[in-house]
TrEMBL record:
One of the GO BP terms on file: monoatomic ion transmembrane transport
Organism from which the protein derives: Lupinus albus (White lupine)
Family note: Belongs to the aromatic acid exporter (TC 2.A.85) family.
Name the UniProt record assigns to this protein: Putative aluminum-activated malate transporter
Listed InterPro entries: ALMT
Length: 443
């Protein structure tokens, strides 16, 4: 009798199926326990709907608060023009204070503080060097004056531009270096004319810029502060939960297909797709978070670099989950799906998938509450056992007999599930390191 070519994926000798004997027997699958939880999918969908609306409302509220804060800052800095005693002190240089508010006031307190400090450092350094070069040039006569100023402008412009291209400097101090070049040129060129009091010009501009900076910082930090660190922390925690829900949906759909339920795919991979494009935003938020002062749960030298590593691991897992969903979609309507699936250990996949989902939610909850995982040892044991079982399944699979795309899709599902387990283990180590460095509390 001719035997059918299927994937042979046994889990122990007792589970080996003799197809020559069972070809004419009806195949019965006991419904896994995960099917009994299909109602939870609706709950997750409703929860996700309200969660999305809540996030949109919070974002709109933050945008309104930011707009009000900018308006307040502009009103305060405009007093330099509107109040006569203040105008008599600063004169037309008040425009530099207004420009400072418009330029450096950012959405988060960390971004505003970082940009303001960069502007201050660039102004002080550029103005100081510009004054020295201008004073020296004014004592060298007309020709020497122009030669020294031209040479210094070229030299500092070249050096400053080169430093702007160095990755570490560009990442945190690009704006400060740009302001250094701008301020140096404005001050030193003012020294071309001997009748200009370069030092007075530099001091007046620095004082007005300082006024604008102080107004921005006070309003940003004291009036409903918006923290980049809070946003980065919350977005990282949310991704753990979203990935867990997506993986659970994939497993439920896989089981539905195995028992030949005619259901449309309800798994949304939009979260995974958006997660793949989150790298630049994470790096920006981490950079801003490093400038922020001690507030709430986050102190100085908080390990934001570790958050970037966690984000990278989550993006890699999102890519694997997308591939996992693709392997399921490939075999949604196979002609011989049931015969192929007879040798696939559904309960094993269910158990491993449940462990993955539980671990992701536990890690997300650990970071959210800033505590160490109570079941850290249990997590490691579960992941180690899952990897061993999947390795056994893969090693005993007869891939050479694959002749249809349905069997290949199921084999891909098993391989990708193993990759997910490996990535979850990597995330567990990263979260544990964050807890050690940040001093997460224990139970």
């Amino acid at each position: 009798m001719e035997s059918s070519n299927v994937i042979c994926i046994p889990n122990g000798e007792n589970n080996i199926i003799d197809h020559r004997e069972d070809n004419n027997k009806s195949f019965k699958i006991s419904v896994p326990s995960i099917i009994s939880c299909l109602g939870e999918k609706k709950i997750h969908s409703v929860t996700s709907y309200f969660s999305d609306n809540k996030m949109k409302n919070e974002l709109q509220t933050k945008q309104i608060i930011h707009s009000i804060k900018v308006g307040i800052s502009l009103v305060l800095v405009s007093l330099l023009y509107l109040v006569d005693p203040l105008y008599e002190q600063v004169g037309e240089n008040a425009m530099w204070a207004i420009m400072t508010v418009v330029v450096i006031f950012e959405f988060s307190a960390g971004a505003t503080l970082g940009k303001g400090l960069n502007r201050g450092m660039g102004t002080i350094l550029g103005g100081g060097l510009g004054c020295i070069a201008a004073v020296l040039a004014q004592n060298l006569g007309v020709v020497g004056n122009k030669v020294i100023i031209g040479a210094s402008v070229f030299m500092f412009g070249m050096i400053g531009t080169y430093f702007r291209m160095v990755p570490r400097i560009k990442k945190r101090y690009d704006y400060g270096v740009m302001l250094f070049i701008l301020t140096y040129n404005l001050v030193v060129v003012s020294g071309v004319r001997a009748d200009q009091k370069v030092w007075d010009i530099a001091c007046e501009r620095f004082l007005t810029i300082l006024m604008g900076f102080i107004i921005c910082i006070c309003v940003s930090l004291l009036f409903f502060p918006l923290w980049a660190s809070d946003e980065l922390h919350q977005s990282t925690v949310t991704r753990f939960q979203e990935l867990a829900n997506t993986i659970q949906g994939c497993l439920e759909e896989y089981i539905n297909i195995a028992i030949k339920e005619e259901t449309k795919s309800s798994v949304s991979f939009g979260v995974c797709k958006s997660m793949l494009n989150s790298k630049s935003k994470d790096e920006l938020l981490a950079n801003y978070a490093k400038w922020e002062p001690w507030h709430g749960k986050f102190g100085f030298y908080y390990p934001w670099e570790k958050y970037l590593k966690i984000g990278e691991a989550l993006r890699e897992m999102a890519a694997i989950v997308l591939a996992l969903g693709g392997s399921i979609q490939t075999s949604r309507s196979p002609k011989e799906f049931t015969s192929v699936n007879q040798t696939v250990q559904l309960k094993l996949c269910e158990a491993i998938g449940s462990d993955i989902v539980w671990t992701l939610r536990e890690l997300g909850d650990s970071m959210k509450q800033m505590r160490k995982c109570e079941a850290d040892t249990h997590i490691s044991e579960k992941l180690k056992a899952a990897r061993t079982e999947l390795s056994l399944v893969i090693s005993m699979s007869n891939i050479s007999v694959l002749e249809n795309i349905d069997a290949l899709a199921i084999a891909s599902f098993i391989f990708l599930l193993k990759e997910v387990v490996d990535k979850v283990e990597e995330l567990t180590k990263e979260v544990d390191q964050v807890g050690d460095i940040a001093g997460f509390r224990s139970y």
